[in-house]
Design a protein that fits this description.
single chain, 263 residues, alpha/beta, TIM Barrel, 11 helices, 48% helix
Length: 263
């Protein structure tokens, strides 16, 4: 069992910094790097051992060549904030809005642009690459292929959307098999509300692919959500999940409860 960290974007907002799109949580690297480091450290203290660099939703297409410097800052912040032996995952997000798989690009575009992000994060010193919150299986497989070319371990997380409307459990399982064939070491489901995750975790377990889960509790009070999150995490673990973390609305208290409950 590997404990992944929890949300960065919603936690930054919870601590008082507004995050505009399209940069989302990544804007905090420049605006309040100390806050980003503080959140990384809090997740480490809670029991997470894999920490996601704050590069989600900030693509080379937005920053151009400046993305390389940005990636170095994000990875260095995470590395300095967590104990030796913990690992840093470079975050690679979709080219467009996570919940708009209809905004598609040609395969060549996906391979080229995700390759730019992957190489920048690898050069920045990330230990692995985490492709996060992909609702398009076609884009996800391209992202995995581009990331795998760096030689780093690649994880991919597919999202059925907040309400489960974007991917069925069967479609997610088929996406997991395709992503695994392209080189993903672990396939996760993320960014769907906690109460909707069970059928997706079951589908991933049945797919035969190493898998993990990190769910949303967006709009809920963390202390009220924590017992339900632990109960769900126990169920995911019983199904064979190798990685468990948190997505939107989770915070260090929830990750700490999971780490304590699952050892």
């Amino acid at each position: 069992m590997i404990v992944l960290d929890g949300a960065m974007g919603t936690e930054i907002e919870r601590r008082g910094l507004e995050l505009p799109t399209p940069w989302w949580s990544a804007v905090a690297i420049r605006a309040r790097p100390g806050l980003v480091a503080e959140i990384h450290a809090d997740y480490a203290a809670a029991g997470a051992t894999v920490h996601t660099a704050c590069t989600f939703r900030c693509q080379p297409r937005v920053l151009g060549d400046a993305f390389r410097a940005f990636a170095r800052e994000a990875v260095a912040l995470a590395r300095a904030a967590v104990p030796r032996g913990h690992t840093v995952a470079g975050s690679v997000g979709p080219l467009e809005d996570c919940y708009r798989p209809d905004l598609a690009h040609p395969r060549e575009t996906y391979l080229r642009e995700h390759g730019l992000a992957a190489r920048a994060l690898a050069e920045a010193g990330a230990d692995r690459l985490l492709c996060e919150t992909f609702a398009s299986v076609d884009e996800a497989t391209c992202a995995v292929r581009a990331c795998a070319e760096t030689g780093l371990e690649v994880w991919i997380s597919l999202t059925p959307g907040y309400d489960g409307a974007l991917l069925t459990p069967d479609a997610l399982a088929e996406g997991a098999r395709r992503a695994h064939a392209e080189g993903a070491a672990i396939v996760l489901v993320n960014c769907t509300q906690l109460d909707l995750t069970r059928p997706y975790a079951e589908a991933l377990a049945a797919s035969g692919v190493p898998f993990g889960v990190y769910a949303n509790v967006y709009g809920e009070e963390p202390e009220e959500a924590a017992p339900r999150y632990v109960e769900a995490a126990r169920a995911w673990s019983a199904l064979g999940a190798r990685v468990i973390g948190g997505c939107c609305g989770t915070e260090p208290g929830i990750i700490g409860a999971v780490a304590s409950a699952l050892g």
